[in-house]
Fold this protein.
Amino acid sequence: MAGSKKNKAKKVSPRQTTHPLIMSQDTDELMNDLLAQLDSREEAVQAESAQVLNEMNLNEQANAIEKGKKQDAKSRFQARQVARKAAILAQSFSPDDPAHQARLENEAKDEDDAINNVCRNLNLEVFEINPDGHCLYSAIADQLVLLGQVSPEQANYAAIRSVAANYIHSHPDDFLPFLPSTGGEDSEGALDAGLMDPFQFDSYCKTVRDTATWGGEPEIVALSRAFNTPIHVVQGGNPSIVRHYPREGDAGDPNGPAVWISYHRKLYGLGEHYNSLRPGPRRIPVT
């Protein structure tokens, strides 16, 4: 079960927090540790992490980042988004509200049941991937080894991130319309859709390649095309399976070789997470 993973993040004490308005590298590392701890199944660890995140005045830091002059627009946008997301996560975690916690647990169970039902029908089993920001790439790496497309030595998130970043960078016309812009509708106070300029696009690809930023739909599409392999995502919502094929409009063989991963929104403290779906035990027909 995906929920059995033990959190390996180092424990952080509230005494370690600082309150600079502009997030330093040390603050970034601290936030990463605290966000990772929100994935813990131990309520005491979750509560402590949420408390420290709240004490960091992240919304104030996000506002300061937006006004900062030392970073380029793309870096400010990304840092602001991380700070705001951390603030929302910390504020939404309410260990003293039993009704809130019960609702979250029920939602997580319903999602888990839905994913496991699909997996049973497909004879697949969840193989847990570490929820560290690289989970999409690690899950796809695990699958590509099973398909014989990469060697175990190449099966790491860094290598798969590079493939995704390089493919997106070399096919800008395919991806620019679907990427968040810093000067258009995705920026604060924007009035038009806008598109990334070449510098912002280069920065986006560098972020995909070199950071722990979560991957999503653009990166899945890029990896499906780069490896010429379908990538199917099992989820708790509707549809239960989102299928990606290397060529747009080509449904391919639904029973052919493919990467199978699961997408979890509720099960982990940080929300979005991907696991690898490995083949289950062979079933002996009843005669």
Notes: Residues 7-96 form one domain. The chain has ten helices and five strands. Strands lie at 124-127, 231-235, 241-244, 259-268, 271-279.
